[in-house]
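Subject: for your reference before the review

Hello V.,

The reviewers asked for a structural picture of the protein, and I figured it would be easier to keep everything in one thread rather than splitting it across files. Below is the amino acid sequence we used in the manuscript, unchanged from the supplementary table.
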Amino acid sequence: MQEGYENLPKSADFSSTSLNLTNLSIKFIKNLIIMGRSKHTINEYARTTSDFLRFINIYKGKIVTEDLLKKISTEDVQAYLADYKGDEPLEEKKAYLRKNFNFETKPPKHLNKENKGWISKNKKLVGEFEDFFEGGIRSGLEIKNKFNKHTNMETKIKKMQRIGFIKTNEIKNKSNRSVARCQSVIKTYFKFLSSTNNWRKNPIQDLATSKYSIKIDQRIFKEEEIINFLNFIDPDKNKTNAKNWNGWEHRRDLAILYLIYSSGLRVSEVLQFKIADHPFKEQQIIRGKRDKERYIVVLDIVKNKIGKYLNKLSETNKDLIIRPSDPLFVKIRSKKIKTVTSRDIQRSMRNLVQLYPNNLPSFATPHSLRHSFATHLLKSGIDIRKIQELLGHKNLSTTQSYTKLENDYLKKEFDKLHPHS
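And here is what came back from the structure prediction:
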């Protein structure tokens, strides 16, 4: 393992770069860690930077070096952004390197004589593929690197696809907002390289920023939808499921959802709390994006749910030593305490939504609770600048997107209720 990798997120992969550029890229990610960026942000930067360097490796057909990046053009970056979005794939010969594949361990039942003969002739290769995939997903580039001794690899992959051994995982087109965020990461990376290497000119900085609009109108719950959903999954209010939903893990998930909706937290911000932070004050200080501090309001009902979760956690795991420095919201693996992840929270809510007997929109995610928090406060008459502070938005323009949403809502209600409509 390259020196310095041990503290990096798993998404950091600089195997397509020279040794010097690998070390520089590691330094770039570590600087973000030192700056106190959130884990989510660090993972996003590591993933996007790695993906960009892999693309350049394939696109240029050579190991990526500092000198190569110094000479790179805006057209090269635009080619990556187009490929990232899914609009313009690479030329066919290189396209498979960017795709993701999974491997079927059993061939289809009905095969013609030709395909049976090919399998028999390439039995060893098929076995190597099965061992390499191990039931997981692999990219075309990983396959190429692993089987670089084999000739005509692309042709063999296509053959195995036609037989049914290999299937391609479809990659969804990215939104304009995702592309703009990706572009921002790349520009920040080049800014770091320019500063470190004293490059006089960096053409990437002149790349026009992608435009996007913030569309949140399809990700807002009605107030009664949230209340009914929370009441259904709350064993204190729904006695029918009280016995099944009284475990500490369900109590934890319930407390997290109450906290997000009542305080407008980002999912990543929930993970910063420690056992020592409990009991919460009525106004609790947290660190948001860019390590910016702000106060959030913690309602009594949220304190109550967190208290019941912690009591159930201690009661169920009497042999487990829980320290003040441990994360507040935990999962237990091999009798060890670990913090829950953003994906754990998203997965838990998805499972609860599936159990809910009434209809909830498909956007029902933890982050939609944050959007709903802001919109419901705005409809209640709370000043938009106060909402900006509660959400931790750097720019008021971001919060103002909720104003448009409220106006659209009022217009719909007006059209629905006015006698001349």
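For the response letter, the relevant points are probably these. The beta strands are 100-103, 137-139, 166-169, 283-287, 293-297, 330-333, 336-339. The two ends are 68 Å apart (CA to CA).

Happy to draft the paragraph if you're swamped.

O.
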